[in-house]
Amino acid sequence: MTSSAYIAKHGARVLLLEKNEKCGGLINSFWRDGFLFDGGVRALESAGIILPMLRELGIEIERVKSPVSVGIEDSVIRVTSKES
């Protein structure tokens, strides 16, 4: 999808086809026994390229910080950096 977006941004006509019944790739959800489940990505890691690429394509996303905790034996360690 990213390649198609870049090609279209530069003026070419693009036809993007999806092989599956539903669009979404790694970002999807599904119903089971009356409950809706997330079936894909839980976090979007920038690694220095994702957020600039989205901005370049004119896509702004809301960043929601998610507290992270790690349980080790009988202790819980809370990750409190600004990136957590």
How many distinct domains? Answer: 1
Count of DSSP H/I helices:
2
| Span between termini | 28 Å
Q: What is the H-and-E element order?
A: HEEHEE
Give the helix proportion (percent range).
10-25%
**β-sheet strand percentage:** 15-25%
Structural class: alpha+beta
In spatial order, strands of the major sheet run: 1-2
Radius of gyration over all CA atoms, rounded: 18 Å
Which overall shape is indicated by the principal axes computed on the Cα atoms? flat
Which stretches are low in confidence, meaning pLDDT under 50 for 5 or more residues running? none
Describe the protein in words.
It is a single chain. The protein is 18% helix and 21% strand. It is of the alpha+beta class and 84 residues long. It has one domain. Strand 3 (68-72) and strand 4 (75-79) form a beta hairpin. The chain is flat and about 60 Å long. The two termini are 28 Å apart. The model has no long low-confidence stretch (mean pLDDT 83).
Provide a compact summary of the structure.
The protein has 84 residues and is of the alpha+beta class. It is 18% helix and 21% strand.
